[in-house]
Write a structure and sequence with these properties.
The chain is of the alpha/beta class. The chain has three domains: about 130 residues, FAD/NAD(P)-binding domain, CATH 3.50.50; about 140 residues, Polyamine Oxidase, Chain A, domain 2 (Alpha-Beta Complex); about 100 residues. It is globular.
């Protein structure tokens, strides 16, 4: 690692290795560099961005999946500013979600300027997919959800689906509202999700701050933000980025750590931030870390499947829309971001996609192209020029009942060995916001816990 001088001429006192180049690792590396540490970022792939990346297929620059953020995602938005990428995203001035159903029926979830939760009242009163009685019941349930403590272990142990049933939320309300929001944010159906985690999502995004749920998304391929812009910012911060350099072992020593990389010399550091998915972290954690790897395995995984469809003409006149009474969950217009100058490129995002994960491309095409045509009348006459599928088998951990108790904080029993990633206990589900917050917490812990050069380390309880 190249040595840098602190302001005033003092020598750098901490060397940090960050293992993993996703949003958590990028954030942690930038924050440690800002504290004048020497930082090396290791990424096993040939790009940064982790689970939010771009690739080229059939001449199209596509994202692996559609990733959105909300106005309440303050840490992620701060990271965008830090890497000079704020102009590469769109953020709604005011929440407006079009909801489509077969037969041409359209509803809207919009907010007004009233304080929460009244900001949604006008929209929900006119929501066409629920009866008057169902809307009234929905309002009572939302008020009750505001009172749930997301940090209560008893709430975490309960199923959100059981709670909804207790509050008389039937199948129409679950499909038209609760799953519409919970499924893409938790990557689980309401019946499989933790009540505490669901309460956090609704409280943070919809029920507390009226502006919190305004939707943001990338105007450009994600790789331009999470790879190109991030690498540029890391270089400017003095972080050494090594791509195609995966760590194979982390070995504690009295003077710090040895990080072994396949085929290249070992790195030495006073602190190591392990910012990889929980199943990989379990393989890399050294003895004495204080982490029970069997508990990490119990976090499990949940898949996301994305369908990429290019039509020969525009078929969707909106930047995005949700679907009800249809297998189409969310659909996004990615034409401009992909650089297409003709036709229209739609990305269909399918969360909690256990069933779709096992379907072939032909089966998915046979199911979803007719479903899109039912939602978008213009698609019935359009020609499909390209259709392909991306699958994230282990897209997120499962925010199931009891998951909060399995999520560790950043600290391990070995001072200077720190954890980051959406699966750590940030309070957030597995989102870009959760990843950035975990990176921030890991950087603080690493800089506070790592001994100065020459100091010894003693294991601590976690």
């Amino acid at each position: 690692m190249a040595r840098r001088a602190q302001p005033g001429g003092g020598a750098v006192v901490k060397r940090v290795v960050v293992v993993g180049g996703g949003l958590a690792g990028i954030t942690a590396a930038l924050d440690c560099a800002r504290e004048h540490a020497e930082v090396t970022l290791l990424e096993s792939r040939g790009r940064l961005g982790g689970a939010a990346y771009s690739f080229v297929r059939d001449g199209i620059v596509a994202d692996n999946g559609q990733h959105v953020f909300l106005r309440c995602c303050t840490a992620y938005r701060e990271l965008l500013g830090q890497i000079d990428a704020s102009e590469l995203v769109e953020l709604q001035p005011r929440l407006a979600i079009p909801v489509l159903a077969p037969g041409g029926k359209v509803g809207w979830l919009r907010r007004t300027g009233l304080p929460a939760p009244l900001h949604l009242a006008s929209s929900l009163m006119r929501y066409p997919f629920l009866s008057v009685a169902q809307r009234a019941s929905l309002a009572r349930a939302m008020n009750a959800l505001r009172e749930i403590d997301p940090n209560d272990p008893a709430a975490d142990a309960r199923s959100f689906g059981d709670w909804l049933s207790e509050h008389r939320q039937g199948a129409p309300a679950i499909e038209a509202i609760w799953d519409l929001i919970a499924r893409p944010t938790l990557n689980l159906l309401t019946g499989d999700a933790s009540l505490a985690q669901a309460a956090y999502v609704f409280q943070e995004g919809l029920l507390t701050d009226p502006a919190a749920g305004d939707v943001g998304y990338a105007r450009v391929p994600l790789g331009e933000i999470h790879d190109v812009a991030a690498r540029r910012a890391l270089a400017q911060a003095g972080v050494e980025v090594r791509l195609r350099a995966g760590a194979v072992a982390i070995l504690p020593h009295d003077d710090g750590f040895r990080v072994e990389i396949s085929g290249v010399p070992t790195l030495c550091a006073e602190a190591v931030i392990l910012a990889v998915p929980h199943h990989r972290a379990a393989r890399l954690l050294p003895p004495g870390s204080g982490l029970d790897c069997s508990r990490l395995a119990r976090l499990g995984t949940s898949p996301i499947v994305n369908l990429h469809v290019v039509y020969d003409r525009p078929v969707l006149g909106l930047p995005f829309a949700a679907g009800v009474r249809t297998p189409v969950q969310w659909v996004f217009d990615r034409t401009r971001g992909a650089g297409l100058d003709r036709g229209q490129y739609l990305a269909v995002s399918l969360s909690a996609a256990d069933a779709e994960l096992d379907m072939t491309g032909d089966e998915l095409r046979a199911r979803f192209l007719p479903a899109l045509a039912e939602l978008l009348p213009t698609a019935r006459e359009a020609r499909v020029e390209t259709f392909f599928v991306t699958r994230e088998h282990a897209a997120t951990f499962r925010a199931a009942p009891g998951a909060r108790a399995l999520r560790p904080g950043p600290r391990t029993a070995i001072p200077g060995l720190v954890l980051a990633g959406t699966w750590t206990d940030t309070g957030w589900p597995a989102t870009m916001e959760g990843a950035v917050r975990s990176g921030r917490a890991a950087a603080r812990e690493a800089m506070a816990a790592a001994p100065r050069r020459g100091e010894s380390r003693t294991a601590v309880a976690v």
